């Protein structure tokens, strides 16, 4: 007989608990969601247009906010709408911070996946499945991230088909303008910037390494992703907060900005500060280096 125990998945209700219990468990230790070492800001936060946000959490590193809605059972239309509505309310309240809508439910339905697919270009949404797992006589609360609309695929660029600039002129001219602006910013510091065009993003190489990506978004927007010097990302986080720049982080080594061209121009000084630190040894005007 195998010495490996089998598990049984139980619903929260059949274990004698309710939504308030689930809310309090997360509030006491937000890290159990698997979204990092988040801090609890408030629970049952009253909204100006009615209703209450179950949980408001934040990342202490960059002050990014997570608006969390809870639901026992399967996701339904009302909870999906509330999740997005509460996210929008808090985003308006704190416009200079990065915000992510989170729906925690016992079952993530196909309808939720469809909504995320439709809104992924405008609303960062995460769906997390919650359940209780029983192993022998022990029971444990378990969370599993099922979908994250802002997770960018980390595929090898060489394995993907390349496109030309015309593809972007015809399909995403607004995003292309953002890319051109940022490329010009990079070129001022590093000279020629090798560029690759893919179906959904454009990559820029700095100092021989792909460090900047412009991902297409609707309404003339772009998701700018910058691979920062890993050990110094906290320095960048502090600087961007002081400059009042809305941004996010990923994997503790990427800075992300959901922006349009005007927003980039308004924060040009902050972006110049970032650019100067991407590959300082390759700056074209660095003392002792050729221009």
The SSE string, one letter per element, is EHEEEHEHEEHHEEEEHEEHH
Which fold does the CATH topology of the largest domain refer to? Trna Endonuclease, Chain: A, domain 1
**How many structural domains are formed by the residues?**
2
| Total count of strands | 13
User: Which residue ranges are poorly predicted, with pLDDT under 50 across at least 5 consecutive positions?
Assistant: 151-155, 287-291
Cα Rg: 22 Å
* Main sheet specs: 7 strands, mixed
Q: Per DSSP, what share of the residues sits in E-state strands of 2 or more residues?
A: 25-35%
Annotation field: number of helices: 8
N-to-C terminal Cα separation, in Å? 72 Å
Q: Structural class, from helix and strand content? A: alpha+beta
What is the CATH architecture assignment of the largest domain?
3-Layer(aba) Sandwich
- DSSP helix fraction: 25-40%
Backbone shape: elongated
Mean pLDDT: 85
State the CATH class of the largest domain.
Answer: Alpha Beta
Keywords:
seven-stranded mixed beta sheet; alpha+beta; Aspartate Aminotransferase, domain 1; six-stranded antiparallel beta sheet; 291 residues; disordered C terminus
Provide a brief overview of the structure.
The protein has helices at residues 19-28, 77-93, 110-119, 165-171, 173-190, 233-243, 261-266, 268-276, and strands spanning 7-10, 39-46, 52-58, 65-74, 99-107, 125-135, 138-148, 195-197, 201-206, 209-216, 221-227, 248-250, 254-260. The chain is an alpha+beta fold and 291 residues long.
């Amino acid at each position: 007989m195998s010495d490996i125990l089998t598990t049984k998945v139980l619903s929260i209700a059949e274990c004698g608990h309710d939504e308030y219990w689930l809310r309090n468990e997360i509030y006491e230790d937000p890290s159990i969601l698997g979204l990092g070492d988040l801090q609890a800001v408030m629970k049952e936060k009253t909204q100006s247009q009615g209703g209450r946000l179950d949980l408001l959490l934040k990342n202490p590193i960059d002050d990014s906010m997570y608006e969390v809605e809870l639901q026992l059972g399967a996701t339904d239309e009302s909870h999906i709408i509330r999740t997005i509505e509460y996210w929008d309310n808090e985003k308006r309240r704190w416009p200079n911070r990065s915000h992510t809508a989170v729906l925690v439910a016992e079952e993530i339905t196909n309808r939720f996946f469809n909504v995320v697919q439709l809104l992924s270009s405008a609303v960062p949404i995460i769906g997390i499945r919650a359940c209780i797992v029983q192993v022998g006589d022990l029971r444990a609360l378990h969370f599993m991230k099922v979908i994250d609309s802002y997770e960018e695929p980390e595929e090898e660029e060489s394995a993907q088909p390349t496109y030309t600039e015309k593809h972007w002129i015809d399909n995403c001219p607004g995003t292309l303008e953002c890319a051109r602006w940022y490329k010009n910013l990079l070129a001022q510091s590093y000279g020629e910037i090798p560029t690759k065009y893919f179906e959904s993003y454009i990559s820029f190489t700095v100092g021989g390494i792909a460090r900047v990506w412009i991902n297409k978004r609707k309404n003339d927007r772009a998701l700018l992703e910058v691979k920062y010097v890993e050990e110094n990302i906290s320095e960048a986080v502090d600087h961007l907060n002081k400059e009042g720049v809305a941004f996010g982080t990923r994997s503790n080594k990427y800075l992300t900005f959901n922006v349009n061209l005007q927003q980039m121009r308004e924060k040009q000084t902050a972006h110049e500060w970032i650019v100067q630190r991407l590959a300082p040894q390759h700056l074209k005007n660095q003392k002792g280096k050729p221009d």
